[in-house]
Amino acid sequence: MSSITITDDALIAELKLRFDQTKQALYDVKMVTKKLEAVNKKLESSEQVKSNFVSHMKNEINNPLTSILGLSQQLGSIASDPNMVEMVASSIYSEAFSLDFQLRNIFMAAELESGETEMQISMVDIDTVIADTIDSFKHIAAEKGIVTQFAPNRPEGEKLLFKTDSDKIHQVFGNLLSNAIEFNHQDGEVEILADLVDSQLRITIKDTGTGIDPANIDRIFDRFTQMEAGVTKSHKGHGLGLSIVKAAIDLMGGSISMNNNQGDTPGCTFIITVPEVEMDVDADAFSVDGNEFFFDDGDDAEAF
């Protein structure tokens, strides 16, 4: 049986090769472990955020619902006082509106998350969608003395009709308007513009609020993210609205940008741009908010 003679140089070279391989393997294991730790940390953080969100949303839903039930019970005992009835009825509407708005956001977020959201395309009267949304938020704006300005730069009677998803435009604009009011100063202003730019719909919402810290601008569209947290936070909300706005705009193939206002005017400006959908839609039908459709019959339009 013959023996194999290994020179010292060959042995050293083999040991060095084995050492380098072991060193690389240890490095790879270290990197994998580090990545797993990072993923685990993100999962823990995500679970904590979702847990906090569920807890917070429970209050966001239960509080207005409890108020509606309590206020409704009062109506029977104050029926003889018209002023009190009017005040209680106004409070019930305010709480019901808040509950409806929160639930719409939750449902849309769930649909966007599941990937089952479909585009419901119609010819949309953009000016009417914006005007109706402003009107629905007027009681909230009035509480802070906020003036909302929207004056379409079009000849009287001329409509801004655009082929898109009415319900998503409605919800996107509603969330942006809600934020513009919530984060505005007392007696502030909200200025809204809507027009076609390069055949795309562009809606601008400018407020006179506090603006957004530049360090947080990259985070504002993250789901469940709020710049304030805890019981000491000064603004309502659950950190879901802007993430819905971003996801819906992405689904429509559009874009959204945000900038703090320059000069002496405080606040910030959001701009959304949405391309028109390239598909055939019945030219005689158009939608206001995704639920109402109007059919042009000569000079008249009827709703149903």
Strands in their spatial order, largest beta sheet:
3-1-8-9-10
Contiguous uncertain segments of 5+ residues: 227-235, 294-304
Number of strands: 10
Number of helices: 6
Measured between the Cα atoms of the first and last residue, the distance is 101 Å
Specify the CATH architecture of the largest domain.
2-Layer Sandwich
Q: Mind telling me the C-alpha Rg?
A: 28 Å
- Major β-sheet annotation: 5 strands, mixed
Polypeptide structure, described:
The chain is α+β, with helices and mostly antiparallel strands and 304 residues long. It has 2 domains: 1-117, Orthogonal Bundle (Helix Hairpins), CATH 1.10.287; 121-303, Histidine kinase-like ATPase, C-terminal domain (Heat Shock Protein 90, 2-Layer Sandwich), CATH 3.30.565. It is 49% helix and 19% strand. It is built from 6 helices and 10 strands. It has helices at residues 8-77, 82-114, 126-136, 138-143, 166-182, 241-251; strands at 121-125, 147-150, 161-165, 189-197, 200-207, 255-260, 268-275, 285-287, 293-297, 300-303. Strands 3-1-8-9-10 form a 5-stranded mixed sheet. Helix 3 packs across helix 5 (166-182).
